[in-house]
Amino acid sequence: MNKTSNKFRHLVWPLVSLALLLLFNAIFTDNFFKIEIKKQDTVKEAVQLPSVPDELTVPAEEAAAQAEAAVEAPAEQTPAAQAPAEQQTPAKEDKGVSIFGYYLYGTPIDILNQGSKVMVLAIGMTLVIATGGIDISVGAVMAIAGAIAALLISLLDAGNCPGASMGPAFYWIIPVIAALALATLAGFWNGMLVAGFGIQPMVATLVLMVAGRGVAQLITDGQIITFDNPGLVFLCNGHALFLPFSVWIVVSMYVVAGLLTRKTALGLFIESVGNNERASRYAGIEARRIKWLTYVICGFCAGVAGLLAASNIKCADSNNAGLYLELDAILATVIGGTSMAGGRFFLSGSLVGAILIQTLTTTMYMKNVSPAIVAVPKAMVVIIVCLLQSPVFRAKVLSIFASKAAKGGVQ
Amino acid sequence: MDLLQTKGIEKQFLGVKALKGVDFSVKSGEIHALMGENGAGKSTLIKIITGVYPASAGTVYFNGKECKFRSPLDAEHAGISTVYQEVNLLPDLSVAENICIGREPRTKLGFIDKKERKVQARKALARLDIDINVGENLSSYSIAIQQLVAIARALDVDCKLLILDEPTSSLDENEVKELFKVMKKLREEGMAIIFITHFLDQVYEVSDRITILRDGQLVGSYDAKDLPRIEMVAKMIGKTPDEINQMQAGIVKNTKFGDVVYEAKNIGCTGTISPVDVSVRAGEQLGLAGLLGSGRSEIAQIIFGVDPHDSGTMTMCGKSVNFNSPQKAVKAKVALIAEDRKVTGIIPDLTIRENIILALQASNGMWKNMTLKQQEEMAEKYIKLLRIKTPSGEQLIKHLSGGNQQKVLIARWLATNPKLLILDEPTRGIDVGAKAEIEALTQQLCGEGMAVIFISSELEEVVRDCDRVIVLRDRKKVGEVAGEDISLKNVMKLIAG
User: Fold this and answer.
1) What is the pTM of this model?
2) Which CATH architecture has domain B2-240?
């Protein structure tokens, strides 16, 4: 009993914060928890209607905010970005997979879909931070992954690339693999600088943070490449088993990461290296290799997040894809209870942290807070969460209450 | 009139009672030894007196007034200075900066007066008769000098009570003598000194009074001259003097040796250690003796692959090997319990269980994961076997006392079932009871056919336990004694040259 309660203690404060935020929305935001079961066809019609139904305004604003960031994105993209992927898919596929015919629709679902990028990033970030490191290049790596995927898909569409003969229904696999491979390579590079050459993690990953967007620009030749390949678009716009497909990507990645760290000794080694690297080496752990591996995993996660980001807006925007998302990922990790000093890590905590951050962002948009000042209320909530987590702060607050109570008792 | 007095001090950590109502007092102008086994509560008591922890119950009186120090700085301002067991200084700052940190002399404009700082630092060190370049980085000096700098820093404050927590554990004989001279001088100046050590001789050399703690309780305070040594030990570990005599007589050297387990020819590293031959047989305990910095630990580090070697060859069980990383050594069933427990031993935020299984898991690799049940069984087994004092294996290792941490580290390596076990200062900072346990354990392991390399600053231990002793001086092997020839006199002669 005691053991299990210890195991989940780190989750208490993030969950409390999330619950408070949801409670706020339940009271002050209309239809926040309204979830509908939709059939693909009806949605298609709904979108095509000139007047947008109530529950669709949220994602539209989200997309609008994103489109706003993508300065050069064509104006028509706003409605297109939030329309379900099935709209673009050929009719035959629509009919062929009837199990995908129904899905849930509503703000909570949208939060999970939009938050998928940070949730995926937080996996890798948690492992890197647990070794006592940090990776601030993940946003730029996302841009690289998106860029290479968009470039290859455009080449394939034009038939200029081997593999095009598979047809658009399958050849999206090539850009996906290429993007993941390139992002993993970026992680390998970071790991080499940090673990191989002993450069401080912040400095080592700063290199790619700055240079990465340049690399992405080189890949796309400075253009924003749009695409409409059904497979690629499906990643962040499609649905499966009632939920957005991206949610299933997140779920499967957390399951794999959980198994990898807790069903093998990797988790123990990471925590050991993060807590006392030298002693870990003396105990026979290949500390450098463990650190290196976490950066590779982090790069892979950034690749997945990059694909999701590109898929979401159906284009690769080297300047804005994943911009500042490394900060959200770090924040999610810290909110989840993993210490920046390294050591113990909590993947489940990071997941809750990522959901908390996305809920916050979505709440802002729903409350019509202008994107320009969204960071301010967001920062305030983050400070509150961090204060709640700080034992020093809690003790101070408790002692104030205790002394007041004591004074009351005397009177 | 007592300068410091504590009444009914209690302290609880996560359900473990570390102190159970301790009354303790120190007078001005006396050296008061605070004795007890690991986990008896000495360090905890000191930390409560100096404001590191708040007490769960009880009061501290200093200078006749009730005091509640909120931090060590608070206590320092009141006149209580402490030098902790571990050197708590900043290695990358200069000696002068370390001594004056937090109370730098200022110029008229409010800037730090660097010249004056050096003068003050030199003055503080002169009180200890040390003459070193105070502009150098602290890390460029030996641990012994660093320890003395820490003491100089403590003395620099206008202090009435000086607490020395294991100040001599890294000092050699001459340095200890120097320190004692200083302590006696300070006593004459009217300062009160609380002295914590595990070296029994040292207690009698300088102390006026002795207070003994056991399991968080006060056993009693005695005048040093009225308390025979054997009785003090008996009170510390809660046994009768007769029982202790039996324990010490109980060490029987193993005499049946097997094949050579490890052999190194001419291994050395330029600038660290001149080439030496080291070989050890199954069931044999090989001692490395010498003064601090004579190259003892360096040999251990090279054998274990932590440090590189640039000459020589190694064989393990007849096969040629080259340990250039600890991983290789661990896989070949070599174990090293290194000197600095805090830096190279424990993983503080992991549990005892995780610390115990770590080396075994590392040699198995990450894919062959031990189940939680297997881990718990293993932890349970070693907690019992080595009598590690803890409520459970799920306790974080950082909450254990030094001696129990050391036992966990021994458990970590025994779990890997090593063929060669290297112990570098395993008894440093450990009490008599645990020391005897560790000595008995190594003998037992030898009896089971393990080869052991034993490094210790305490020559008595080396002489008592080892079957063969390699003596080192100035990073060179200067001799080797074996069997009947091993005696304190012979070893000392070789060390002195």
Assistant:
1) 0.77
2) 3-Layer(aba) Sandwich (3.40)
